[in-house]
Design goal:
Helices cover 0% and strands 48% of the residues. The strands form two sheets. Strands 2, 4, 5, 6, 9, 10 and 11 form a seven-stranded mixed beta sheet that branches. The protein is mainly beta. The protein is globular.
Length: 128
């Protein structure tokens, strides 16, 4: 059974950094696109970044471009999200999600409906 487990969230001051991890089980990273989404209180789920297991292509939302970096370690079956220069607006629950690369997709990388598996989320709070 596929499982995605996020870790690395916590409380950080504005301008600080955190690295989130998404550990996947019963799933081979090279066969999936893995994305990070976030959801702040009262807001919808927002696509933050995605990485293709096939060729390593990466995507970022405009709100995090230049500050966040996504990467993967196939040997550890883990995807990371390095978050730098954090602001109050980055406060949210962060989720990782997996989308199989087999077959066509009707969704863009930032659309939650396109993902088959989700983790339970990890809280990131940016506060002074």
């Amino acid at each position: 059974q596929v499982q995605l487990v996020e870790s690395g969230g916590g409380l950080v001051q504005p301008g600080g950094s955190l690295r989130l991890s998404c550990a996947a089980s019963d799933l081979t990273l090279r066969n999936y696109a893995i994305a990070w989404f976030r959801q702040a209180p009262g807001k919808g789920r927002e696509g933050v970044s995605s990485i293709s297991g096939r060729d390593g292509s990466t995507y970022y939302s405009d709100s995090v471009k230049g500050r966040f970096s996504i990467s993967k370690d196939n040997a550890k079956n883990t995807v990371y999200l390095q978050m730098n220069s954090l602001t109050l607006e980055d406060t949210a629950v962060y989720y990782c999600a997996a989308d199989s690369l087999f077959g066509p997709t009707s969704y863009a990388w930032y659309q939650a409906a396109g993902y088959d598996y989700w983790g339970q989320g990890t809280q990131v709070t940016v506060s002074s």
